[in-house]
Amino acid sequence: IPVLEELTTAQHVITVDNFLPAPQAAELRGVFDSRFADPRACHPERFLWDYWHVPDQYTLVRTQAAVYFPDELYGRLEEALLSYGEAALGCRAISPIWMSYYVDGCLQELHCDNPHGPFAFVLSLTPTTDWSQREFVGGETMILQPHVLNYWRNYDPRKGMELQHLVTRVPSPFNRLTVFDPRFPHGVREVRGTRDPRKGRLVLHGWFTEPAPFFDGPLEAADAEVALNEGLEPLWEALEAVSGLITGTLIARVNISGADGSVTDLSWLADTLVEVPNHDRAAADAMLEERVLPRLRALVHNEVRDCLMGLSFPAAGAGRDTKLTFPIVFE
Q: Residue 124, Cβ neighbours under 10 Å: how many?
């Protein structure tokens, strides 16, 4: 039986520094600073905030970014996030964007956001590009490390562990975008120190949503979708065998030749696939029956690649190539 190799690496946390053009990031930050510049001033924008406190779970101050920022500025922010989600994650929409600030005592305890979307994002407007120079302690995004969720498979009685071995702590310097898998338990480390909103942790946050196949190029979508649906039938049959044994999102992008409609290249945009505990039992059963059960991540990668590379589409009249972004979500 051939040994299948994984074709891409699971990535549950992504950081992008200097995400927005510097003037745009500064403009967003400037709106916030101007409205808190005079603590004695009373104007409507000072009363847009919700102090959100859920005992033993959440304490922070939040608002809807679409309400807080001028329309034109918010539109450019939304467009930047949408463009990134489409290009890097294969997601064509985002949730409404929240903005939250954290001062002394604010935090989020560990939780999961499974229903909201396959990728969560945090875009920091915290007023320092050097995280070590912030005027508070804490404030990092905390994400439970993958091995903790399968603790006994990796258990080593000779080794102890501390917080840094169990949780990934992601700093939030100014203009950093953090994207992560919201199925992993995550939170925000308690902020200690400043009570001034202008000196605390300030972030924009939400979820990338609606992963769906889409075409970018001269190929007619209606004709392409017919060919795609027909060509995917063998893939769905093959993946039926792993139903319930793997969970997560896998997103590929292929290049379709405008000259003859063949697929000429494939790249992987995102991979959060995780084998679930049922796979352990399936592997044990296979060993008892003297069969070899392949690693499921590798099996899915290879099935998807072989199917997508074998697709055939109509030639494009303009002769230019078309990109197909193709996501698969395993629930």
A: 28
- Rounded CA-CA distance 103/135 in Å is 10
Angle, alpha carbons 200-120-62 (nearest 5°) = 35
287-296's contacts with Cβ under 8 Å and 24+ in sequence apart are 292/1, 294/1, 294/3, 294/4, 295/4, 295/6, 296/242, 296/245, 296/246
**Which residue has 């562990």 as its token pair?**
161
181-197 per-position pLDDT tens digit: 999 999 999 999 999 99
Q: Which two tokens stand for residue 14?
A: 């992504």
What secondary structure letter does DSSP report for 312?
Answer: B
Name the percent of the chain in helix, strand, coil, to the closest 5: 35, 30, 35
Q: What is the reported pTM? A: 0.90
Burial (CB count within 10 angstroms: exposed 0-12, middle 13-18, buried 19+), residue 204: buried
Q: Given a cut of 70, is residue 83 above it in pLDDT?
A: yes
C-alpha–C-alpha distance, residues 176 and 234, integer Å: 41
Tokens of 117: 């979307």
Distance from C-alpha of 127 to C-alpha of 279, rounded to nearest angstrom: 46
With contact defined as beta carbons under 8 Å apart, do 230 and 125 qualify?
Answer: no
108-158 confidence digits (pLDDT tens): 999 998 778 999 999 999 999 999 999 999 999 999 998 898 888 778 889
DSSP 295: P
The predicted-structure confidence for 283-293, as pLDDT tens digits, reads as follows 656 555 555 55
DSSP string for 241-294: GGTTTEEEEEEEEEEE-TTT-BEEEEEEEEE--EE-THHHHHHHHHHHTT--PP
